[in-house]
């Protein structure tokens, strides 16, 4: 059993049966983050790209809990230069351990610049997604920020994700129409929408996605921030 807690935007907490906690794209200042929510443990952090709304709180969590921090090589190097310990830079197609979970870095179609202290944008490597290979042999595809792309069919062929976590907000990522096409290629049993409701510009909705996939046999799991579900 895997516990999944959505904390707004693309920030999720996964707690394994053995207790280990994996966090994706930590941005604890996002408007949907439950203000009373506190982490008690973090064993690994997965970062998809360098935008502040996806790694804005990676350094603070890393300092507090000393987790393994996984990101594309350039972003990992930048985090290391800021004093983040135990960074594990990798690249697309590679797989490494995050405790008892293996994570494979996948393609994503987005941008990934890092804003420095002076407001300049520096190169942070390319954006990515991840496939989490769970100890019980199920797999989760965490897409990160991305447009739909045809090589999602290769993710299905290689990794057969049981659960896909896809952005649906539109404007900065794909919207519900594109996410439905992603579902057609990925063929997951279930999909969790993310990266919506955060800003007024993110107009894509769960209802639109649900209507678009109704004939695919895909179950849409709508999570509420701070509420844990078992999967």
Q: The CATH topology, please?
A: Metallo-beta-lactamase, Chain A
Going across the major beta sheet, what is the strand order?
A: 6-5-4-3-2-1-16
How would you classify the helix and strand content by structural class?
Answer: alpha/beta
β-strand percent reads 25-35%
* Overall residue-averaged pLDDT value: 97
Give the class-level CATH name: Alpha Beta
Report the helical percentage.
Answer: 10-25%
How large, in whole angstroms, is the Cα Rg?
16 Å
Contiguous runs where pLDDT drops below 50 for at least 5 residues = none
* Run of helices and strands: EEEEHHEHEEEEEEEHEHEHEE
Q: What is the CATH-assigned architecture?
A: 4-Layer Sandwich
Q: Kindly, what is the distance between the CA atoms of the first and last residues, rounded to a whole number of angstroms?
A: 6 Å
Whole-number tally of structural domains: 1
Task: Explain the overall architecture.
By secondary structure, the protein is an alpha/beta fold. It has a single domain, classed as Metallo-beta-lactamase, Chain A (4-Layer Sandwich), CATH 3.60.15.10. It is 20% helix and 28% strand. It contains 6 helices and 16 strands. Strand 2 and strand 3 form a beta hairpin. Helix 5 crosses helix 6. The chain is globular and about 50 Å long. The chain starts with a strand and ends with a strand.
């Amino acid at each position: 059993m895997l516990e999944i807690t959505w904390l707004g935007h693309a920030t999720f907490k996964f707690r394994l049966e053995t207790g280990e906690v994996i966090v994706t794209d930590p941005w604890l200042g996002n408007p949907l983050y439950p203000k009373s929510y506190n982490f008690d443990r973090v064993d690994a952090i997965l970062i998809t790209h360098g935008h502040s709304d996806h790694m804005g709180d990676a350094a603070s969590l890393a300092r507090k809990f000393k987790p393994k921090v996984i990101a594309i090589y350039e972003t990992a190097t930048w985090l290391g230069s800021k004093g983040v310990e135990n960074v594990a830079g990798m690249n697309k197609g590679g797989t490494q351990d995050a405790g008892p979970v293996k994570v494979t870095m996948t393609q994503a179609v987005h941008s990934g610049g890092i804003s420095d202290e002076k407001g300049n944008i520096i190169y942070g490597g390319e954006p990515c997604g991840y496939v989490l290979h769970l100890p019980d042999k199920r797999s989760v595809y965490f897409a990160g920020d991305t447009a739909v792309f045809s090589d999602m069919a290769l993710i299905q062929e290689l990794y057969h994700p049981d659960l896909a976590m896809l952005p649906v907000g539109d404007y900065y990522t794909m919207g519900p129409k594109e996410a439905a096409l992603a579902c057609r290629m990925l063929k997951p049993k279930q999909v969790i929408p993310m990266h919506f409701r955060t800003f007024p510009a993110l107009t894509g909705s769960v209802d639109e996605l649900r209507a678009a996939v109704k004939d695919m046999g895909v179950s849409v799991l709508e999570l509420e921030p701070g509420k844990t579900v078992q999967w």
